[in-house]
Amino acid sequence: MKSTRLLLASTLVISLTVIAGCANSTSSSTQSTTSQSTSNQTATPSAIHSGVTKMLSITDTLKSAINSGDEVTVKKTGPQLEDAWSPFEDSVKQKYPDLYKKIEDYLDPTIAGSKASPMDKQTLGTLNGELTQALKELSTKE
Q1: Of 5, 20, 32, 55, which has the maximum CB count within 10 A?
Q2: Rounded CA separation 74/63 (Å)
């Protein structure tokens, strides 16, 4: 009877030690995964700044194409805005939620307007100008 209790107590201690060790290992693994994903999601300020610079270049090209009435260039350049915005969009959303909303409010209609045929020069020019202003406001913060 005494040996059975001793065996049971030993088994219980070993089991608890193994369970505690596994739980601790899982916890540290989860923490390192969380910190890695956080660092991957958060772009550095220079990434935001370079993204904004690229977008401002695209809006400038788009402005020239709109003013000259070059629909082919407008249709080609408009969708490039989304490609330039995507890499740092989430960082802006976290860091500057108001500016994120402002940019999104002008970005989506600008892209849609660039795909429309026939091109509405006045509306597209206004949207592109507002988008450019929002991007310049963001560039001053970075």
Answers
A1: 55
A2: 9
